[in-house]
């Protein structure tokens, strides 16, 4: 049985490989859909319910609103999304995924989701709790480091991430 330190080292070494494999998978999905990885990321944000606000999507993607508008134009031409008027405030637009392309996206993700789901089904409650905590903490850390890099200095990044 490996010691704690050996397991921590193995995990630290496996993480970048996992991230690289995930990036390769997402790139392959984007290629299959005929979109860029950034467009796929936007589609996933909209589909997941993270936000449907063009301004917030641009922020989450690290894009200017102008660059995001051009990307959204391409996504509409590819029949991935549509712009819709906000029913609560007609001055605002919302980004909505189109159902036929979402079914295609679901089909592309299904085999990987099934494999990962089967693996997680073998985890006990303690392991799942640790996994969720690690992923949540990792998301926060990655968001903070991305903000630092985008802002160019630590003080500006702290303002961005709160």
From TrEMBL:
Query: Which PANTHER family does its entry note?
Result: HTH-TYPE TRANSCRIPTIONAL REPRESSOR YETL, TRANSCRIPTIONAL REGULATOR, MARR FAMILY
Q: Which InterPro entries match?
A: HTH_MarR-typ, MarR/SlyA-like, WH-like_DNA-bd_sf, WH_DNA-bd_sf
Q: Please state what the protein is called.
A: DNA-binding transcriptional regulator, MarR family
Q: Which species?
A: Amycolatopsis saalfeldensis
Which Gene Ontology biological process is one annotated for this entry?
response to stress
What top-level branch of life does the organism fall under?
Bacteria
Sorted keywords for this record are: DNA-binding
Pfam families noted in UniProt: MarR_2
Listed GO MF terms: DNA binding; DNA-binding transcription factor activity
Residues in domain HTH marR-type?
A: 4-140
């Amino acid at each position: 049985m490996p010691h704690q330190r050996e397991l921590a080292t193995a995990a630290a070494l496996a993480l970048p490989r996992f991230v690289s494999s995930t990036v390769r998978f997402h790139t392959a999905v984007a290629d299959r859909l005929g979109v860029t990885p950034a467009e796929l990321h936007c589609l996933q944000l909209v589909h997941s319910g993270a936000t449907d606000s063009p301004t917030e999507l641009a922020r989450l993607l690290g894009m200017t609103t102008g660059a995001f508008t051009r990307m959204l134009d391409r996504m509409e031409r590819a029949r991935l999304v549509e712009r819709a008027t906000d029913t609560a405030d007609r001055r605002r637009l919302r980004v909505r995924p189109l159902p036929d392309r979402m079914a295609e996206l679901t089909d592309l993700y299904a085999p990987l989701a099934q494999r990962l789901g089967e693996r997680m089904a073998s985890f006990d409650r303690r392991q799942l709790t640790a996994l969720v905590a690690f992923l949540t903490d990792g998301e926060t850390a990655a968001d903070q480091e991305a903000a630092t890099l985008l802002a160019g200095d630590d003080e500006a990044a702290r303002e961005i991430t709160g």
